[in-house]
Amino acid sequence: MLFKTTHRTPIGLLYLVSSEDVLLGAGFRSFEDLFERMDPEDSNQETKNIKTIPIISDLVADYFDGDLTALGGIKVRQPGEKFSQAVWKAMRKIPAGKTLSYADLADRAGSPAAVRAAGTACGRNLIAPIVPCHRIIKSGGALGNYGYGLGTKEWLLRHEGAL
Asked: Given its phi and psi angles, is residue 162 left (phi above 0), alpha (psi -120 to 50 degrees) or beta?
C-alpha cells in the first residue's frame, strides 16, 4: 500500500508518495508525473490518499518553516542505475546553503569524467527537493536547469541561503 498526499509550500503544492516511512516520489508537478517515473513494482500498488504521511510530512513542513536540515531525516528510494544512485547519494550529502557544480558532483559520485551522466541523474531525480538536485549548478556559477523551473530552483536556493 502506497500513501500519497500534498503539502502546501510557498512555491506551490509538493506531491508526496511513500511506502510506509520511505519516500518514493516527491515533486511540484502532479501525482501522475511521479507515478509515471516510479519503479513499476511500486507504482502498480494500491494507493491511499491521506492528510499527512507520518514523519515525512512533518519533516517537509519543518524544512519550509526554516529547519534546513530536516529533509536529511527522510528515507528515500528510487529506481536507477548504479551511477545515478551514487549521484543521488552524493547530492544528499550537500548541506543546505551550499551548491556544487555538475563536475564536482560527478567526482563525488566516483566518476569525474561523467559530468553529463551526473546531469542526467539530476534530471531523473524522482524525489525533489528531498534529494536536493536544486543545489547543483553550472561550473561558472549559473543556475543551470531544474525540472520544476528556474523560479522554483532560485526560491529553494534563497530559502537555504545559497543565493
From this structure: alpha
Catalytic residue, chosen from 90, 127, 133, 156, is 133
Mean pLDDT of 22-31: 98
Concerning whether 122 is annotated as a catalytic residue, the answer is: no
Specify whether the CB–CB gap between 45 and 1 falls below 8 A: yes
* 3-class SS of residue 26: strand
Residue 132 to residue 89: CA distance in whole angstroms: 10
Q: Over the stretch 62-92, which tens digit does the pLDDT of each residue have?
A: 999 999 999 999 999 999 999 999 999 999 9
Look up residue 62 and give its three cell numbers: 519543518
Q: Which residue has the cell 550529502?
A: 93
Enter the DSSP assignment of 7: E
Mean pLDDT, rounded, for 115-140: 96
3-class DSSP state for residue 36?
helix
Reported confidence tier of residue 28, pLDDT bands at 50, 70, 90: very high
pLDDT band at 23 (very low <50, low <70, confident <90, very high): very high
Q: What domains can be seen in the chain, in order of their start residue? A: 2-75 (3.30.160.70), 80-159 (1.10.10.10)
Other CB atoms within 10 Å distance of the CB of residue 45: 14
